[in-house]
Amino acid sequence: MGSTDVFTPEKRSAVMRRVKGKDTTPELAVRRILRTTGIGYRLGGAGLPGRPDVVMKGRRTVVFVHGCFWHGHDCPRGSRKPKANAAYWIAKIDRNRARDAANAEALQALGWRVVTVWECAMKAPDCPDRLLAAVRDQAAAVSISSASP
């Protein structure tokens, strides 16, 4: 690693191993909400654009659970700018946002409804109700964030 890293290479490696790509706490919470209300789903979305976190084939609905920072949400955590290697991370987050938009558009073109659940929304007490309403809704795309009404 570069000389600006505060960790030794071994410690940095250990830290990065703990970064999860699936089965994150927000994903598990979304799945628990769906399961307790009897809504069936599958995981992984293999073969679908963007590999959605949750797929409800019968409802033609997919759910993406996005971390606010990594996907550039407009909440305080998502709009925080990294200090180290800022140019790289800003470009990376911009690419993530563009990829997310392209995946949602591609899924909608294939006839899927897209529900995006933002990490910040998981803290709200009405999150389960909003998630269930979004899954049962007929809109083509729904975003559940802390800024939603």
What does this structure look like?
- The protein has 149 residues and is of the alpha/beta class.
- The protein is built from four helices and five strands.
- The protein has helices at 9-17, 25-36, 86-109, 127-136; strands at residues 42-43, 54-56, 61-66, 113-118, 141-144.
- A five-stranded mixed sheet has the order 1-2-3-4-5, sandwiched between helices.
- β3, α3 and β4 form a beta-alpha-beta unit.
- The radius of gyration is 17 Å and the shape is globular.
Q: Helix and strand layout, with pairings?
A:
Layout: H1 9-17, H2 25-36, E1 42-43, E2 54-56, E3 61-66, H3 86-109, E4 113-118, H4 127-136, E5 141-144
Parallel strand pairs: 3-4, 4-5
Antiparallel strand pairs: 1-2, 2-3
Number of alpha- plus pi-helical segments:
4
Task: Give the amount of beta strand, in percent.
Answer: 5-15%
Helix and strand succession?
HHEEEHEHE
**Judging from the principal axes of the Cα atoms, what is the shape?**
globular
- Given the helix and strand composition, which structural class is it? alpha/beta
> Uncertain regions: pLDDT < 50 for 5+ in a row?
none
How would a crystallographer describe the biggest sheet? 5 strands, mixed
Distance between the termini: 44 Å
- Give the strand tally: 5
Rg from Cα: 17 Å
Mean pLDDT: 86
Tell me the helix content: 25-40%
* Biggest sheet, spatial arrangement of strands: 1-2-3-4-5
